[in-house]
Amino acid sequence: MKSLNTVTSERAVRAMDVREAAIYRGPHLYSQTPMIRIQLDLGTLEQYPTDRLPGFAEKLTQLLPGLHQHGCCYGEAGGFLRRMAEGTWLGHVAEHVALELQNMVGADVARGKTRSVADEPGVYNVMFAYQEEEIGLLAGRFALELVDGLLPPELQGVSSLGKIATSSLGAFELAGALDALRALHRDRAFGPTTASLIKEAEVRGIPWRRMDSSSLVQLGYGKHLRRIRAGCSSLTSEIAAEIASDKDLTCKLLQEAGLPVPRSIIVEDAAAAVRAARRLGFPVVTKPIDGNHGRGVNVGLASDEEVTWGFLQAQAHSPSVLVEQQLTGADHRILIVAGKLVAAAKRVPAQVTGDGRSTIRELIEQVNQDPRRGEGHEAALTKIVIDECLLHFIARSGLSLSSVPARHERVMLLPTANLSTGGTAVDCTDEVHPGNALIACRAAQIVGLDIAGIDFIAPDIGRSVLETGGGIIEVNAGPGFRMHLHPSQGRARNVAKPILDLLYPEGTPSSVPIFAVTGTNGKTTTARMLAHILSTEGHTVGLTTSTGIYIDGQRIMSGDCTGPKSARVVLAEPMIDVAVLETARGGILREGLAFDRCDVGCVTNVASDHLGLKGIGTVEDLAAVKSIVVESVRRGGWSILNADNSHTAAMREEAGGQLCYFSTAPQDRWPDFLKEHVWEGGRAIVCDLASQPQDIVLYDGGHMMLVATADEIPATLGGLAAFNVENALAAAAMAYCGGIALSAVRNALSTFGTSFEQSPGRLNIIDRHGLKIIVDYAHNPGGLRALGQLVEKLKAEHGSCIGVIAIAGDRRDEDILEMGKLSGGIFDRLIFKEDEDPRGRPVGEVAAILKEGARRAGFPPENIEIVLSERRAVDKALAMALENDLVVITADDVGQVWQQASRQVRRRKMEAFVPPEMTAKNEARMS
């Protein structure tokens, strides 16, 4: 390693460089926990682990003393400090700093990991958990800036930080960074009410997702989907909420129902307010007619001047003001859920207690130092704010901020007891008189609210207000839970539980069954076969595929929809009762899965494809990505694995739920694990492709049952299409493990063919007028190899076999060469084309490599043409095809190619029977 002294003379020193950043929102390659990943190139700093940076660890822990509690790999406090003393790399340090910064501003995160990138010394994936994406990203940026700032000047410099998050800071300064994170936390973090509901949902295993930058949260999936926004739910009536916001209307409705409420009068100017107060009798209350959180509310107004002032305060929040009779007693909040009282708290207005030395201003500052107090609704209590209302209220008692209360003298600071204005709460749930509880429950039901906060004035909550006086002063929609979750005195109440009971009564599921399919080849057809089986059984299916999103058989989005964004669209569709999700490698690498757990997961196979992209360099790497689907199968669910594929079969060690295999191998060639599995009563669906008939057989619990024969499934072309036999086995296994009867599986598969309508781009065949055309998406060597096996079986029936072949430009050169070699071994004539998107390669390069691959396979060059445009390549192939020829097209734009081929076949028919001069006119009319 180099010494620090020699580094200063080398200006080739590379600073830390952020290569990329990603947000994992679901299970991913590194963990089941949502994380942020920063790929960091340490450059020269790879030579300087922490034990070679004198004073670094000490300076870091002085700034962040909370790092003393990080256990790291040792699992105990001080573990991370031990790692720094032993020597660890700065990417690992940044991981812990990012976690600690989040914890310092109120997030509760602990999990992280840093892993080196294979074959790239000094490059690391730095990963850490987050609660809110923006906060996590900014913490990651600040972590790198902080670590960099503690290095010797000659080693400092971190580049490409903009890939992580934007920052308004200039030179890094910890206090400013924490202020920025706290501000973002206040703006983005869930308040206590929403946070309690999410926590309860997580305890119950109910999936949730944030829908906006505020507090709108989706619970559950599909037809079991519900939404909450703080104390409002998707069951909350809009009309009821509007009634509750109109204080005068609420009062009238409750009064008509015989409930105790104060008399009130609506006014719109100060003079009318004074007249109303005289009519009602002093003291009175003034409040905005549609306000909330106690804003603009003043009580105890006992003169014309005070009423005028109170009117102006209320009018600042609403043009119409309610002047209300003041009831006598303490202020209580009663929480009603589904017509039942679940919590009650006595609310105490903001106050200070004198010590004989401090001014009221100083006493307020002391109270605000309570760590439970924060800004707004973020913490258990809210800081007391000195405003005009507070100044006016204490002035009514002859006090000011400079007044010094006597020792033990209690000074009330505000007229209202809302927690949002600095009040405190004392739990009194068990003290509420049954008569008072009944009054509160009736009030919520009369207004029509599923969740209601009843503001209740009572001299003694343990006695009926019908005897003591008092009553209801407000009914609130979307009430906050802070006072019940974190009372200043008394027992905390889990008020989220009855709300989740309301949304999901006992025995009610929160999710629709989720079937997830992945693999290198066959996943689209498997997903479509499974969706067809489930639809035939009467289910409303949400389906994602590489050709679009389908809801109940209708395509609602087109394109490649195999990523987590598309999966979330399906899972948020309220009409579906089952989800079938084709799940591709790209989305998993980009942000993880869209779901935490699935009921049935399937991996069709793993073969060489997409290697060299996103850090996936080997088939083993690719298998690790695909395995995430079955690793996410819930307890009691099913993992479906291809026993004939070694990479897939190996996933049995980590797969979740129970195992079911499928295989097309003869029984005497079964691998030992499959033989043992079936012998022990395990579940497997098999079909010996070498036998006649090709029976599809289910083994389950020691029993053997015939599912169907391969030739009964149209998609297998009488058993010739071996790859569709495999896909049928996978789909049948998923359906059966998902609770579908074997008879229903058999009947549904017997009606699944290769039509473009049922499975676009998957072995679609036109066989008319002396020409057979196969349109297939085969986009990698594995797919073409499987298609080639079918072509070999069909060749005997046909003359020349023409292939129109392409492969995506983001594949490795060796994969493109392999595609060319395979093509040379399958077809008699070849046309190499290119996809419309060259994916980073020069136009013509892919086709040239394909041609070279065919040449190496011994294919005659005179039988090869390069036509780069897919449309022109298809026209060329169909023009050269003679009667009884076979044309195979590996399509990029599947829909366009299918329409083009269909038109050409119709044209051939017309040319056979119609004079040439009429052909163009008729073709135009038919188009």
Characterization of this structure:
Helix content is 35%, strand content 22%. With 927 residues, it is of the alpha/beta class. Among the domains are: 4-188, no CATH class; 201-237, no CATH class; 514-749, Mur-like, catalytic domain (UDP-N-acetylmuramoyl-L-alanine:D-glutamate ligase, 3-Layer(aba) Sandwich), CATH 3.40.1190; 764-926, Mur ligase, C-terminal domain (Protein-Tyrosine Phosphatase, Chain A), CATH 3.90.190.20. A hairpin with a 6-residue loop joins strand 3 (112-116) and strand 4. The radius of gyration is 35 Å and the shape is elongated. The model is unreliable at 1-13 (pLDDT under 50).
Strand and helix layout:
Layout: H1 4-7, E1 16-24, E2 35-41, H2 56-63, H3 79-86, H4 90-104, E3 112-116, E4 123-129, H5 133-149, E5 158-159, H6 174-188, H7 192-204, E6 208-210, E7 216-219, E8 226-229, E9 232-233, H8 238-245, H9 247-256, E10 264-267, H10 270-280, E11 284-288, E12 298-301, H11 304-315, E13 321-325, E14 330-337, E15 340-348, E16 351-353, H12 360-368, E17 373-374, E18 381-382, H13 388-395, E19 410-412, E20 424-427, H14 434-447, E21 451-458, H15 465-468, E22 471-477, H16 482-485, H17 496-503, E23 514-518, H18 523-536, E24 541-545, E25 548-551, E26 554-558, H19 564-571, E27 578-582, H20 585-591, E28 598-603, H21 619-631, E29 633-642, H22 646-649, E30 658-663, H23 672-679, E31 683-687, E32 695-700, E33 703-709, H24 722-737, H25 742-749, E34 764-768, E35 771-776, H26 781-794, E36 801-805, H27 813-826, E37 829-832, H28 845-856, E38 864-866, H29 870-880, E39 885-890, H30 894-913, H31 916-926
Parallel strand pairs: 1-5, 17-18, 23-27, 23-28, 24-27, 28-29, 29-30, 30-31, 35-39, 36-37, 36-39, 37-38
Antiparallel strand pairs: 1-2, 2-4, 3-4, 6-7, 7-8, 8-9, 10-13, 11-12, 11-13, 14-15, 14-21, 15-20, 16-19, 21-22, 24-25, 25-26, 31-32, 32-33, 34-35
Helix pairs in contact: 4-5, 5-6, 7-17, 10-11, 18-24, 18-25, 24-25, 26-27, 27-28, 29-30, 30-31
